[in-house]
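HUMAN: Quick job: go over this next protein and say how the chain folds.
***
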Amino acid sequence: MNPSDLRWPASPSVIERIQRQKKRIAVERALQSPFWKRRLPRLDLNRVHEPDVWRRIPVLTKDDLRAIPAERFHDEFCIAPRSDCVEYWRSGGATGRPLFYPRSAEDMAHNLMAFERAWALIGATEKDCAHVSFPLGVHPVAHLYARAAINRGIGTVWCGAGNNTSSEAQLELIEHLKPTLWIGMASYGLHLANLAEAKGYDLASSTVKKIIVAAEPLSPVKRQKLERAWGAEVFDHFGMTEAAIVSGEGLGHEGLHAFTDLWHLEVLDERGEPVADGEVGSLVVTALWSNTMTPFLRWCSGDLVSLSASPGGGHPWSAFPVMRHARRTVGFFKVRGVNINHADLEDAMFRIPEVVDFRAEVYNSATGNDVLHLHVETRNLKGEGVVEAVRKTFQVTPEVTLLPRGTIAKDFEANVKAARFVDKRG
């Protein structure tokens, strides 16, 4: 593969020039949208690249878009006729009304190139074959990875998630077709590993040597569990339906290299001010190229991240800054006054070697007290061990129900994104 095909910027100064030019174009395009015409203050377009002018643009949230009636969304927000749309992308997330974004042929050329970069980051070549286990449907991630792989000459097996192709059949395909790469959500990768163990199949000895995960935060604990189960090297990638692949981990595992020639990225504190280099804040994204239909200016993604200067090096992506994904801004239980972040609870559970899988619920007991209820599958571990580990970490004593092996797996078969955390308090 020729790295020059992927428009890698030669230096940070090249990225700065792209940003200066494309930020103005992004605003000019947004001004064609009735939604943005009402929303934008008067701006000096000659100075819109300057931070004090740029930050006058209000941050855009999913709630802002959901306030537009679905039947009016195209006419209110979009800036090109429906006839220019070549495909629709469904917004991610598990709550609220889903949104569907049109993409033009021009948008798709840039977005597919970003996904081709994602394969280049991990050193994938024409000699590889990728088993695709992201959900296949209106949400674009699976088919974009697969189409980009084909563009790069990489073989593909389009399985989708368990609701597209049963997990047992996927294990058989891995054994028979011998892919070298597996891509999917980390939680589904762990589910396949659990199923393989139950079926007596040694997944760690399969031909899969590299794994790409995306669509959910990847903690060090979950990474280690996944690498151990598959005997493969894990690479974390990050994207969103409002953009495409935004950043990805590459060879060397230096963090997620952020494609800042394609997206203008801001990391803001609670007051909307930029944080210092390397500090965690809320991610705000502006599309610089793929904005001919949907003008996403200063989109609040709902993620907490940090951005640091490029570490340099000899890779084609060495000019990019490095992103580290902390967690989603939403996702915690408050139980008897204690905030339990979902990601922290997941890490605590997966640190217990005997825990195979779990689901967490919170409900109100008959006495009115909040109860954290854990449904757990284990390898020869009694519930007391889970109770003690959670109490030690969070100072909350949970109820624990031990489930037969494979019980939670059925949720993965039936749902694109099975709910691991459920609040039943209404």
